[in-house]
Each structure stands twice: as structure tokens, then as C-alpha cells.
Amino acid sequence: MTEVEVMGVAFDGSTNMPIVVLKDKRDRTLPIWIGILEAQSILFALENIKTPRPLTHDLLKDMIEKLGAELKEVAITSLANNTFYAKVIMGVDGKTKELDSRPSDAIALALRTSSPIFVSDSLFANQTQTPIDDNEVQRFKEELKNINPADFL
């Protein structure tokens, strides 16, 4: 497993889907196609945008903290049938618990809790370059900034 950072969120014009791009210290990248609401949630966390009421990932963060648990890390573990799989690793009462998760939800939660994100090294095998450029990342960020959070409440 290799620790990664969220490089950004962009829009794939060919599939009309958002992409979250993860990058490790060796500049390997991993694009993961995600839903629009998950992209918005990730972008809100990256840009530190606050909403008047908690969104789903904010609620999950608050629940974890109020229940005395800790999000230790997130792991993007595998790819099967064009679907990425992830785990949320929690510390609860001195024990480690793993929960199955969509990568987009795990990433959104990790960003809110400042928890590390790891990717299985095997997932980088076929990824040699970023599928998007910095202009696309910036354009998608601007598009998401124009979305009113109140529209989703």
C-alpha cells in the first residue's frame, strides 16, 4: 500500500462523469470515476467550503467522533469489473474495525478527518500519467463552486 494525496477533481467529457485523481510521492496517478454528489463533497472538503447544514460525509465524521471512534485510514484496495473497492479502517474501543466503502465516500470522509489515504500498489500498474490536465481540474472546480449547497438539502 502506498499513501496518496487527492490531486483534484475533474470532469471527463467523454463519459460526462467526475473523476477524482490520486497521486503518490513517485508521481504515479490513479483516476477514479465517481458520482457528481461525491465529487462535490470531495471538492467541498478540499476547498474547505462549509455548508449551512451537515452533508452526509460531515454527518458521518460527527458520528464517528461523538461515538468515541477514530478514522485511522482509508485504503483503496482493488478493482474488479471496472469497480474500485475501498475500506475505511476505524479504531473503536482499542480495536481495529474495517468497513467496506466506495472509494469516493472513503476519500470524502478521510479529507474531513485528515486521515491518510492508501492505494494498493497493484492499482498503479497500468496508470502512467494523469488522464486530465490542470486546466480541466480548475474548470471543474469552478463549475462545482457555482453549485448552491442549499439545493441538496
Summarize the structure.
The chain is 30% helix and 36% strand. It contains 4 helices and 7 strands, in the order E-E-E-H-H-E-E-E-H-E-H.
- What share of residues are in beta strands? 35-45%
Number of domains: 1
Whole-number radius of gyration? 15 Å
User: What is the overall shape?
Assistant: globular
Total DSSP helices: 4
Helix-strand layout with pairing:
Layout lengths: L1 E11 L4 E8 L4 E5 L2 H12 L8 H11 L3 E11 L2 E10 L2 E7 L1 H11 L3 E3 L14 H12 L8
Parallel strand pairs: 4-7
Antiparallel strand pairs: 1-2, 1-7, 2-3, 4-5, 5-6
Helix pairs in contact: 1-3, 2-3
Describe the overall structure.
It is a single chain. This protein has 153 residues and is of the alpha+beta class. It has a single domain (2-152), classed as Bifunctional nuclease domain, CATH 3.10.690. Helix content is 30%, strand content 36%. The chain has a seven-stranded mixed β-sheet with strand order 3-2-1-7-4-5-6. A hairpin with a 2-residue loop joins strand 5 and strand 6 (95-101). Helix 1 (36-47) packs parallel to helix 3 and helix 2 crosses helix 3. It starts with a strand and ends in an 8-residue tail after the last helix. The relative contact order is 0.24. The model has no long low-confidence stretch (mean pLDDT 87).
